[in-house]
Write a structure and sequence with these properties.
- This protein is an alpha+beta fold.
- Helices cover 59% and strands 19% of the residues.
- It contains eight helices and five strands.
- Helix 5 packs antiparallel against helix 6.
- The longest helix is centred in the C-terminal third of the chain and has 33 residues.
- It is flat.
- 8% of the residues are buried.
Amino acid sequence: MKSIFAIIFLTVLLASCRQQPGGEASYALGEQYDDTMPMDRRDQFSPPPPPPPPVKEQEVVKKKIIKDGRLGIEVKDLESTKARVDTLVKIYEGYYDNERYNNTDRESSYDLKIRIPASNFDRFISEVEKGKGEIKYKEIDARDVTDQFIDLETRLQNKKNYLARYNELLAQAKTVKEILEIQEEIRGLEEEIESTTGRLKYLGDLVDYSTLNLTLSKRKDFKYNPTDRDNFGERLKQALSKGWFGFVDFILFVVNLWPFWMIVTLFVYGLIRLGKRKTKK
């Protein structure tokens, strides 16, 4: 019997030893999701936090840029170059704001103020530069007026809101005094709205159409043109005549100063008398 109990005991002991690792693994696996475990342990196995909500892109404000330029080109054939510029202005949908022609002994030139749509401005300048001629100067300026646009638009909207409110008050006014006061406020707001709207339109035009001051010039060969002059006899008569008139003018000028000469004469006479008295003494 003792040997049988010993065999059974050994068998149970071996079976328990084989099952222990699996049991520990099962316990460890279950421990991950046990609600009774400490919070610091549970955080290690908690699911990752949800991704942050997508950030909405801010509305992109379109830049308001005013472009101006100055360009001077010296050419050999002024008229053909001017005709080419005329064609380019039409192609790029521009127009002449001012056109002036100058003709002197040294050079002939065109001073042109050209308005070109901003989207075509750079291409227009590039085409003008491709023509025959020497570029004497070039200057391009760009000004960002976006802040001015935003400020003016905000002010305009606020004034329109005030105007709408005053119109509501005008409809509710009961006395003549109230009506007159509200109408005066409305008149002032309407003037401010008109002024701000005009300013916005002006800036918008400068943004939409860029300005180029273009000078096309052609040098002329120097030629001496002697001035026609009178013969010697005529010139002598003129000299004698001018000399006589100058002498007469001088005499008349001296005569016009007669009060001054009287004062000087009396002053000198007084000094002489005073000197004689001192000598006698």
